[in-house]
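INFO  loader      accepted 1 record
INFO  loader      residues=156
INFO  predictor   begin
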Amino acid sequence: MALTILVVNGPNLNMLGTRETDVYGHATLDELIAGVAAHAESRGAVLRHVQSNVEGDLVAAIQTAAADGEGAADGEGAADGVVLNAGALTHYSIALRDAIAAVDVPVVETHLSNVYAREDFRHTSAIAGVCAGVVAGFGATSYLLAVDALIDLLGG
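INFO  predictor   done
INFO  writer      dumping C-alpha coordinates
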Protein backbone atom coordinates (compact mmCIF):
# COMPACT_ATOMS: atom_id res chain seq x y z
CA MET A 1 0.00 0.00 0.00
CA ALA A 2 1.36 3.42 -0.96
CA LEU A 3 2.31 5.92 1.70
CA THR A 4 0.08 8.98 1.93
CA ILE A 5 1.77 12.32 2.51
CA LEU A 6 -0.32 15.30 3.53
CA VAL A 7 1.04 18.72 2.61
CA VAL A 8 -0.42 21.45 4.81
CA ASN A 9 0.09 25.08 3.83
CA GLY A 10 -0.84 27.94 6.12
CA PRO A 11 -1.75 31.60 5.82
CA ASN A 12 -0.92 33.56 2.69
CA LEU A 13 0.57 30.62 0.81
CA ASN A 14 -2.47 30.77 -1.46
CA MET A 15 -0.92 34.03 -2.69
CA LEU A 16 2.21 32.39 -4.10
CA GLY A 17 3.06 33.68 -7.56
CA THR A 18 1.99 37.23 -6.73
CA ARG A 19 3.15 37.71 -3.11
CA GLU A 20 6.70 38.94 -2.59
CA THR A 21 8.00 37.20 -5.71
CA ASP A 22 11.54 38.29 -4.83
CA VAL A 23 11.30 36.02 -1.77
CA TYR A 24 8.86 33.28 -2.84
CA GLY A 25 9.24 33.17 -6.63
CA HIS A 26 6.67 33.28 -9.40
CA ALA A 27 5.19 29.79 -9.14
CA THR A 28 1.63 29.58 -7.87
CA LEU A 29 0.59 27.25 -5.06
CA ASP A 30 -1.15 24.99 -7.59
CA GLU A 31 2.06 24.76 -9.63
CA LEU A 32 4.10 24.05 -6.51
CA ILE A 33 1.74 21.30 -5.35
CA ALA A 34 1.60 19.73 -8.83
CA GLY A 35 5.39 19.41 -8.79
CA VAL A 36 5.43 18.00 -5.26
CA ALA A 37 2.67 15.52 -6.13
CA ALA A 38 4.59 14.32 -9.19
CA HIS A 39 7.72 13.90 -7.07
CA ALA A 40 5.84 11.99 -4.37
CA GLU A 41 4.29 9.74 -7.02
CA SER A 42 7.74 9.03 -8.47
CA ARG A 43 8.69 7.79 -4.98
CA GLY A 44 5.58 5.61 -4.77
CA ALA A 45 3.63 7.89 -2.44
CA VAL A 46 0.26 9.59 -2.76
CA LEU A 47 0.03 13.29 -1.96
CA ARG A 48 -2.91 15.17 -0.51
CA HIS A 49 -2.96 18.91 0.08
CA VAL A 50 -4.69 21.33 2.44
CA GLN A 51 -4.26 25.10 2.48
CA SER A 52 -6.00 27.46 4.82
CA ASN A 53 -5.59 30.92 6.22
CA VAL A 54 -7.36 29.74 9.39
CA GLU A 55 -5.30 28.29 12.25
CA GLY A 56 -8.07 25.95 13.39
CA ASP A 57 -8.31 24.38 9.93
CA LEU A 58 -4.60 23.54 10.06
CA VAL A 59 -4.96 22.02 13.53
CA ALA A 60 -7.91 19.93 12.28
CA ALA A 61 -5.91 18.75 9.23
CA ILE A 62 -3.06 17.56 11.46
CA GLN A 63 -5.44 15.83 13.86
CA THR A 64 -7.27 14.16 10.98
CA ALA A 65 -3.97 13.00 9.47
CA ALA A 66 -3.54 10.80 12.52
CA ALA A 67 -7.05 9.33 12.21
CA ASP A 68 -7.10 5.63 11.49
CA GLY A 69 -10.78 5.58 10.89
CA GLU A 70 -11.66 7.58 14.01
CA GLY A 71 -12.66 11.15 13.34
CA ALA A 72 -12.67 10.53 9.62
CA ALA A 73 -14.99 8.43 7.50
CA ASP A 74 -13.14 5.18 6.75
CA GLY A 75 -9.81 6.82 7.49
CA GLU A 76 -10.52 9.62 5.02
CA GLY A 77 -7.94 12.30 5.63
CA ALA A 78 -5.50 9.94 7.33
CA ALA A 79 -1.86 10.24 6.30
CA ASP A 80 1.40 8.52 7.10
CA GLY A 81 3.29 11.81 7.37
CA VAL A 82 2.83 15.55 7.06
CA VAL A 83 4.83 18.27 5.34
CA LEU A 84 3.85 21.52 7.07
CA ASN A 85 4.52 25.07 5.97
CA ALA A 86 2.62 26.93 8.66
CA GLY A 87 3.64 30.33 7.28
CA ALA A 88 3.59 33.04 9.93
CA LEU A 89 1.86 30.66 12.37
CA THR A 90 5.21 28.86 12.62
CA HIS A 91 6.49 31.57 14.90
CA TYR A 92 3.73 31.74 17.48
CA SER A 93 1.09 29.02 17.17
CA ILE A 94 1.07 26.96 20.33
CA ALA A 95 -2.14 25.35 19.02
CA LEU A 96 -0.26 23.91 16.02
CA ARG A 97 2.60 22.79 18.26
CA ASP A 98 0.14 21.00 20.56
CA ALA A 99 -1.63 19.36 17.60
CA ILE A 100 1.67 18.03 16.23
CA ALA A 101 2.72 16.78 19.68
CA ALA A 102 -0.64 15.04 20.15
CA VAL A 103 -0.50 12.88 17.01
CA ASP A 104 1.58 9.85 16.20
CA VAL A 105 2.39 11.03 12.69
CA PRO A 106 5.77 12.49 11.73
CA VAL A 107 5.70 16.12 10.62
CA VAL A 108 8.43 17.91 8.69
CA GLU A 109 8.38 21.70 8.98
CA THR A 110 9.26 23.34 5.69
CA HIS A 111 9.70 26.84 4.29
CA LEU A 112 10.38 28.18 0.81
CA SER A 113 12.67 30.91 2.11
CA ASN A 114 15.59 30.73 4.52
CA VAL A 115 13.76 32.05 7.56
CA TYR A 116 17.09 32.47 9.40
CA ALA A 117 18.29 34.98 6.81
CA ARG A 118 15.18 37.13 7.21
CA GLU A 119 13.65 39.26 9.98
CA ASP A 120 14.55 38.32 13.56
CA PHE A 121 10.99 37.30 14.45
CA ARG A 122 11.19 34.54 11.81
CA HIS A 123 14.17 32.93 13.53
CA THR A 124 12.03 31.26 16.20
CA SER A 125 9.75 28.33 15.44
CA ALA A 126 7.10 27.30 17.95
CA ILE A 127 6.68 23.99 16.11
CA ALA A 128 10.22 22.81 15.27
CA GLY A 129 10.70 21.11 18.63
CA VAL A 130 7.86 18.66 17.96
CA CYS A 131 8.65 18.07 14.27
CA ALA A 132 10.81 15.26 12.90
CA GLY A 133 12.91 17.87 11.10
CA VAL A 134 13.01 21.23 9.34
CA VAL A 135 13.82 22.01 5.70
CA ALA A 136 14.07 25.67 4.71
CA GLY A 137 15.57 27.98 2.16
CA PHE A 138 15.54 25.94 -1.04
CA GLY A 139 12.37 27.27 -2.65
CA ALA A 140 10.13 24.54 -4.06
CA THR A 141 12.94 22.05 -3.53
CA SER A 142 12.34 22.40 0.23
CA TYR A 143 9.04 20.58 -0.25
CA LEU A 144 10.67 17.82 -2.32
CA LEU A 145 13.34 17.33 0.34
CA ALA A 146 10.67 17.22 3.04
CA VAL A 147 8.73 14.55 1.11
CA ASP A 148 11.92 12.53 0.63
CA ALA A 149 12.74 12.83 4.34
CA LEU A 150 9.28 11.62 5.33
CA ILE A 151 9.33 8.69 2.92
CA ASP A 152 12.78 7.66 4.17
CA LEU A 153 11.71 8.10 7.81
CA LEU A 154 8.64 5.95 7.19
CA GLY A 155 10.73 3.24 5.54
CA GLY A 156 9.18 3.74 2.12
